[in-house]
Amino acid sequence: MKVLDLQCGQQHVFEGWFASEDDFLSQRQRAMIECPVCGDASISKRLSAPRLNLGAGRAEVAPLPQSALNVATEPSLQAAWMVLARRILANTDDVGTRFAEEARKIHYGETPERGIRGHATADETDALIDEGIAVLQLPLPDALKGQLQ
Question: Where are the domains of the chain?
Answer without folding.
Answer: 2-45, 74-145
